[in-house]
């Protein structure tokens, strides 16, 4: 059990950092509620010493000497309520054992003259729990043998805090070795405020309040060695990078019909993935703390529980958007790993609502945008230029092997198919340039067809048959693509590639 609650609890060791921030957040919220601090005074400081140590300290109420040791040395004991607290299982404090040699907690309550220090010998504990370890003690005895505690005089009776320090790293996450990675991770997962550069912050908060959603936040500061500390904010700015340009976000608001969640989705007018991995994706949050990364919404986009056609290809569209879904704390219970939710009826209802009102809506929008982009004048002009790099040398030489010509003819057929779709979808301003491209392709294809007769392989009759088969194959691919769903079409492509080596794009 002890191994499960420590080494096996978190899918990624870096999530220990989130757990300590989460615990500090709970402490600070209580301190504000008790009148000990104001929201602006409450804060968490993270001190980074590259590859050596990481310390996370909050100025909340701390633990009193009377019960600090019993609270910190126990496993799975917590008086927190998931409806009011971000952490509630009583196991998060041990998360760092997996990647440090020493895990130390220091805490002091306001008004007390003494502080408590509890130290876990994490290396010793890992050794005892390893497959090669030999011990017959139960979990409590094993843990007790690896813990020391002391109470000592504190220099300032008015000071109050809780601090965890991880020292002597063992296969640590990159966030413990690279300051930029630490900052990026904390900015994504923590209950931070929106930054001053995010122009939609005020409107989002106003919309949240109108829906009776309180987006809680805490100030977090990071310090790299002896450098000045920096205050962190959520990683959203005035625009996002897409392809080779920066574009603004347009904000939509989405809400649960049953009132269990609310959120915002940032979309853009151009197709493509948002470049910055720290801000892209629609993220699920409870008490403004991120649950998992972007995988929950990616999974909902890819797999619907509402029936209908499979849409595996929609998974990529999560990166076309930025946004947040805030779930009420009493509506669904995060699982112990905090990479998802307990798979109960409440979560299934929320998942289906997110499917219907977010994933389906924005998945279809991205699919239409992607298709339109492929049929745009710019895209078709680029495809024509690529085609000419193949066709022009063949036409200039006036003679080539059939294998070479057939590839060019196939490329021409596919380009003509796209042009046909583009003509149907184009508005009046695009028709003329698309038809010009179409005429150019038709002219080049006629010249390629004329080369078929002189192709060295086989007779002219055989070449014409091969050309007809190529055109029929392209017609078949086109019909399949139009009639099959995205996942069915992908499977058909895989079968064709396996049998023929050709990719029917």
List SSEs in N-to-C order.
HHEEHEEHHEEHHEEEEEEEEHEHHHHHH
Structural class: alpha+beta
Strand order of the largest sheet: 5-4-3-6-2-1-7-8
Weakly predicted, low-confidence segments = none
Helix count from the secondary structure assignment: 14
Mean pLDDT: 86
Radius of gyration: 30 Å
Q: Roughly what percent helix?
A: 40-55%
CATH H-level name of the largest domain... which superfamily?
A: Histidine kinase-like ATPase, C-terminal domain
Q: Which word captures the global form?
A: elongated
Q: What distance lies between the first and last C-alpha atoms, to the nearest angstrom?
A: 52 Å
Number of domains: 3
Give your account of this protein's structure.
By secondary structure, this protein is of the alpha+beta class. It folds into 3 domains: 2-198 and 216-231, 2-Layer Sandwich (Heat Shock Protein 90), CATH 3.30.565.10; 240-372, 2-Layer Sandwich (Ribosomal Protein S5, domain 2), CATH 3.30.230; 375-500. Helix content is 42%, strand content 17%. The protein has helices at residues 2-5, 15-33, 68-72, 122-129, 139-144, 179-189, 201-210, 295-302, 345-374, 377-397, 402-425, 428-452, 460-483, 486-500; strands at 43-49, 53-58, 100-108, 114-121, 147-153, 161-169, 219-224, 230-231, 240-242, 245-247, 250-255, 261-267, 281-286, 289-291, 322-327. Helix 11 (402-425) packs antiparallel against helix 12 (428-452) and helix 11 (402-425) runs parallel beside helix 13 (460-483). The longest helix is centred in the C-terminal third of the chain and has 30 residues, at 345-374. The two termini are 52 Å apart.
């Amino acid at each position: 059990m002890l191994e499960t609650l420590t080494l096996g609890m978190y899918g990624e060791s870096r999530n220990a950092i989130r757990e300590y921030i989460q615990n500090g957040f709970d402490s600070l919220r209580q301190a504000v509620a008790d009148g000990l601090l104001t929201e602006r005074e409450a804060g968490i400081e993270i001190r980074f010493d590259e590859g050596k140590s990481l310390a996370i300290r909050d100025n909340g109420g701390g633990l009193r000497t009377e019960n600090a040791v019993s609270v910190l040395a126990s496993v799975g004991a917590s008086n927190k309520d998931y409806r009011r607290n971000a952490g509630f299982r009583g196991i998060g404090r041990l998360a760092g054992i997996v990647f440090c040699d020493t895990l130390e907690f220091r805490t002091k309550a306001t008004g007390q003259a003494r502080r408590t220090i509890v130290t876990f010998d994490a290396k010793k504990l890992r050794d005892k729990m390893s497959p090669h370890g030999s011990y017959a003690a139960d979990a409590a005895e094993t843990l007790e043998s690896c813990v020391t505690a002391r109470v000592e005089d504190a220099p300032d009776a008015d000071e109050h805090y809780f601090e965890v320090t991880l020292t002597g790293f063992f296969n640590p996450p990159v966030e413990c070795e690279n300051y930029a990675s630490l900052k990026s991770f904390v900015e994504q997962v923590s209950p931070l405020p929106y930054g001053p550069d995010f122009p939609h912050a005020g409107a989002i908060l106003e919309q949240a309040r109108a829906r009776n959603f309180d987006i809680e936040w805490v100030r977090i500061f990071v310090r790299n060695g002896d450098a000045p500390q920096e205050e962190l904010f959520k990683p959203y700015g005035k625009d996002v990078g897409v392809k080779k340009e920066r574009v603004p976000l347009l904000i939509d608001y989405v809400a649960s019909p049953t009132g269990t969640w609310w959120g915002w989705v940032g979309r853009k007018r151009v197709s493509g993935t948002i470049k910055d991995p720290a801000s892209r994706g629609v993220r699920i949050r409870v008490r403004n703390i991120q649950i998992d990364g972007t995988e929950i919404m990616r999974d909902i986009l890819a797999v619907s529980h509402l029936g209908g056609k499979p849409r595996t290809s929609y998974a990529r569209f999560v990166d076309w958007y930025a946004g947040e879904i805030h779930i009420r704390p009493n509506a669904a219970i995060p699982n112990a790993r905090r990479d998802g939710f307990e798979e109960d009826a409440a979560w299934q209802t929320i998942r289906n609502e997110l499917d219907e009102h977010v994933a389906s809506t924005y998945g279809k929008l991205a699919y239409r945008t992607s298709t339109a982009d492929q049929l745009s004048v710019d895209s078709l002009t680029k495809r024509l230029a690529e085609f000419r790099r193949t066709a022009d040398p063949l036409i200039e030489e006036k003679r080539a092997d059939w294998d070479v010509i057939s590839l060019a003819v196939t490329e021409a057929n596919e380009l003509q198919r796209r042009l046909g779709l583009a003509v149907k979808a184009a508005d009046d301003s695009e028709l003329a340039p698309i038809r010009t491209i179409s005429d150019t392709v038709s002219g080049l294809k006629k010249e390629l067809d004329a080369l078929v007769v002189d192709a060295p392989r086989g007779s002219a009759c055989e070449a014409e048959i091969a050309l007809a088969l190529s055109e029929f194959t392209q017609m078949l691919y086109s019909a399949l693509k139009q009639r099959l769903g995205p996942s069915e079409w992908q499977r058909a492509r895989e079968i064709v590639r396996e049998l023929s080596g050709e990719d029917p794009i």
